[in-house]
Every structure is written in C-alpha cells, then in structure tokens.
Design brief:
Strand order of the largest sheet: 3-2-1-4-5-6-17-18
Number of strands: 18
CATH superfamily of the largest domain: NAD(P)-binding Rossmann-like Domain
Low-confidence stretches: none
C-alpha cells in the first residue's frame, strides 16, 4: 500500500527544537520506494525561526514536496507534542507524546487526538520482544550533551570564583553542535590535565555518575575522553585527600550504592545480593533512604542520570543539601541530565539551552541563573539532544529505518491496528487507533476523562 506521508515542522513553543524524525537520507529512501513525502518548511513562515536542522533544499533534492499544507497526508511524522489546534482529523501521528504516564500537561492533546479520530503511535514505546526500547538515540545524545554542558558549567563556575582551570576550553554543546568536534576538544583538555594538572585551589576532581543506564552510558563516554581513573565508593575519601591533580576520577553508583536500608528496616543486615537489593528497591522502596551523605562531601561534579517518581526516596532533599553543604562545600556542579524538576534532587528546576545553569544556595534555599554567587551550579537543560540536532536526528532516523517501509506502507484504514500490517515493535507503541485506545493502553481512558 502507498500512503502520502508528511514531516511536520515543530511548534514554536518547543524552544530550541531543531531535530527531525526523518533525515534527508531517509526521505530519499521513502520517495524512491514510491511514497509521496510532504515536508513543511523548517523556517516558520511568521517568525522566521528555523525549526529543523536540515535545510529544505536537502529534502527537495531527495524528492520531497516542500509545502505548508499537510492535509493530503495520511501519516504525519513529528517529534515533540503537538499543539491541539494543529492536530488534523483522522491522521496517523508518530511523535513523542509523553502521555502514557498520565502527564497532566498533555491530557488536553490526548483528548483532542481521541475526538478527532486520530491514530497515535509513540516512538518512546516502540519495543522489541524483550520489552527493550528500539529507538534510543536521543537517550544517548542527552548523555553526550549533558556531560559536555556540565563540564562547560564546571569551567565557568570555577572561573566565576576566580579559579583558572582547563575546563574553560570546553564549550556548551550548542556552540559547536558537532559531536566529533566536541569530543576532540574534551580529549584535548584531558591531555592538558595530564601535563599541567587541575587547579591547586581544588581537591582532586571527582565526577560521580548516578545510575548506569543509557543516559549515564552516553555521559560516561564523553567523560572517558578525559582519561579518568575509576574508583569505588570506599576509595572516595582517600582520593579526595591524597589523589593526583594530573588526572580526574570517575565514580559510578547504582541503586545499592545510592541508597541504603533504613535503620528500622527488617532487611538491614540480611546479606542480600545486588540484584536482590535492586528488586527490593523497585518493589518496596519504603525500606530505603539516601546514601548520598557518603558521596556529597567528596565530589566536584555530580551527574544525575536516574529516573525517579514520588514513590521512591529522594537522593538529595533541600534539607540534606543545607546540612551537607554546611559541612563540606566541595560540590561545584550538578548535571541533572534527566531534568526531573523537584525530583530525586529536590531543588532541581528545568532549564533551557539559552539559559542552562542556575546557582542554588542550600543555606537560603534560593536560586538565580548564571554562575555567580554562593552555592552549587545546576545544569538541568530539558532538551539536551537538541544541542547535537544533526547528529542526533541522523542516528534516530537510522534506528527508525528498519521499520519505516512497513510503517509507510501500512493500512491505516484497517478496523484494528493488528490487521494494518505494522511491525510488532510499532504495535507495541500504538496508543490510539482511529481515536480509540488499544487494549494495552485502555487504562489511559481515565486520563482524558480527567483532562481539563
């Protein structure tokens, strides 16, 4: 079956967003296989703002039609949430909807998709037979950009304190927007540290990664360019006191190190394995409390790479930060890559590429943007992969490519999603089919009934 496909321009409300689900290379393949592809211009017709990293000319050269009118299309590809007024009736939409957890801010959009009889397929939910996500490019790129921005923030924070340091050679990722160029710069800083060292005014530089998933893996891969020495939690105080300034240090913590059993927990001293502790944490989080008082005093840089929900204990509360910072003010920067406002790190707040860092004063529990003042600098950019828009988009498109021919050729008029000819990974991600919730996502009906 041949469908008319469309690539929409991201809305102006998506600040700094220039990524695209379909790269010009993938567009060429779709057109070559017989599909008509409509592409909205990347430049907004009213504001003139460019909302796509790839020029229109590259899509036109691939055989796509550049047009504002996407109404002839049956299938529309986007990236982020879509303003309700721009949703067209009876279309099949592919984008990151951020709806399956009942997110309040997107319930109105979800309700509109139902009312307009749309099909909704969410990239985030595409998974293989093991339940593993198949589109993970942006997760890794969040790590790449988050680590880059955190090292940049460290350099600028120290400079604001009057401390000359090698990290000032590292730019904010968006300044280069090229992953390899940034990698080369970070590697150069690593060589500089090996020769000249880090500032004597600081203890040895220790970066602690919270979590070991894909985001953390991406961040660690960038930090590895500094050629760090890996250390354990037990070694932390010794390295702080006696470590070398001709290198940097790396500590990676997972659940069994980030948390400990509460004093009254019946599991304390039970001799559980790491795997058993992890499973218990997921199942019965009330038995745990933060272990970050064993980490906070010794680290220069803290990278938050874990997902969190209110069911779980916080890693650093405002009260914790005030108490620990009064005892030791070594921590210079927190890189909150997961960008979880008031989450695992209670005082974290969402920031954006054009205003990426704020300083939080644990004593006054106040914050202000920039690098000056007392406290801890926090980088919590909400759309980190946008800083490497071209690289991230091409990687995402390459991950989507194996499924694209069946996606493009599916029968979106079929009575049920299962008979449309879609790949199983896509069926896993089908939230709505022609305005109705699929069986897997029937629980989401409550979200539209409760929508504003």
């Amino acid at each position: 079956m041949t469908n008319i496909l469309a690539l929409r321009r991201e809305d102006l409300s998506k600040k700094g967003e220039q990524r695209a689900a379909i790269s010009p290379e993938l567009a060429r393949e779709l057109v070559a296989s017989g599909h008509q592809l409509l592409v909205q211009s990347g430049r907004h017709p009213q504001s003139g703002e460019v909302k796509r990293i790839f020029p229109d000319e590259e899509y036109a050269a691939a055989g796509a039609l550049i047009t504002e009118d996407l109404s002839p299309a049956r299938v529309v590809f986007g990236l982020k949430e879509i303003e309700t007024a721009k949703l067209m009736p009876a279309k099949a939409y592919y984008f990151f909807s951020h709806t399956h957890k009942g997110q309040l801010k997107n319930r109105g959009m979800l309700h509109s998709l139902c009312e307009k009889g749309c099909t909704l397929i969410d990239y985030e939910l595409m998974a293989d037979e093991r339940g593993q996500r198949v589109l993970t490019a942006f997760t890794y790129f969040a790590g790449y950009a988050g680590m880059t921005d955190s090292l940049w923030a460290l350099g600028q924070r120290l400079l604001a304190k009057g401390i000359t340091n090698p990290f000032t050679a590292i730019p904010q990722a968006i300044e280069k927007a090229d992953l390899q160029a940034v990698k080369d710069l970070i590697a150069g800083v690593g060589r500089d540290i090996a020769q000249k060292g880090t500032p004597e005014a600081l203890p040895p530089v220790i970066c602690c990664f919270l979590g070991a998933g894909k985001t953390s893996t991406g961040a660690q891969s960038m930090y590895q360019l500094l050629n760090p020495q890996h250390i354990s939690l037990e070694e932390l105080p010794h390295i702080y006191q006696h470590g070398s300034r001709k290198k940097v240090y790396q500590l990676v913590l997972d659940i069994p190190e980030m948390y400990r059993f509460r004093a009254e927990s019946s599991y304390r001293g039970a001799g559980l394995s790491r795997a058993e502790i992890f499973e218990l944490y997921l199942r019965e989080p009330q038995h745990f409390e933060s272990n970050m008082d064993q980490v906070f005093p010794w680290c220069t840089l803290l990278m938050n790479c874990i997902l969190w929900s209110p069911a779980y204990p916080r890693l650093i509360s405002r009260a914790d930060a005030a108490r620990w910072y009064a005892q030791a003010d070594c921590l210079q920067v927190i890189g909150d890559i997961t960008c979880d406002p008031e989450g695992a790190i209670e005082f974290s707040q969402e920031t954006w590429i054009d205003q990426p860092v704020f300083v939080y004063d644990p004593h006054t529990q106040s914050m202000h943007f920039g690098f000056e003042g007392d406290g801890i600098a926090v980088m919590a950019v909400t759309n980190l992969p946008c800083e490497f828009s071209a690289d991230a988009s091409r990687q995402f498109a390459s991950e989507l490519r194996p499924y694209m021919q069946r996606i493009a050729g599916a029968n979106y008029e079929a009575e049920a999603a299962e008979s449309a000819g879609l790949p199983p990974e896509v069926l896993e991600a089908t939230i709505l089919w022609k305005g109705k919730f699929t069986e897997k996502y029937a629980y989401m009906q409550q979200f539209i009934e409760q929508s504003p």
